[in-house]
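Appendix B, Record 12. Input sequence as logged:
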Amino acid sequence: MTDKHINRRKALGWLATGVAMPAVSACGSPASAQGGYRVNYTEAEWRRRLTAEEFRILREEGTERAFTSPLNDEKRAGTFVCAGCGNALYSSTTKYDSSTGWPSFWRAIDSGAVGYSTDYKLGYPRREVHCADCGGHLGHVFDDGPPPTGKRHCINGIALDFRPA
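Logged structural output:
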């Protein structure tokens, strides 16, 4: 994360953790039709709060280029939180090197931290992962992960912030 990115984040005054919601919101995601999340902003508010790349990933369901996130190499103990709302999503204890180019985890921090939907953007179904509190797009879950779950939560690093223990 660059100094510019960190300074912008501080200047925006992010919400404290502890806000939670059901599915996905703005920008065409499934929850927008379902009534929203606990953290709910208009598209214009999200654009003000997020960098252009964060908005593209979290609100427009984009994907960052592989091997570009500094969080790929993050090995310290701590918690990975949603870059949009600060919701705790993944523990460093479940992070592993999948060699895919994106931060990967074998499970979310708890069952209510993330939500799922089906994505057909590539012509076949994929399990999409969203922040349960703000609906931000995080990435996808695949069935090629390590024990004990066999799952690989393949997450865009730009959708995460890291909080050391």
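Residues 3-12 form the longest helix (10 residues).
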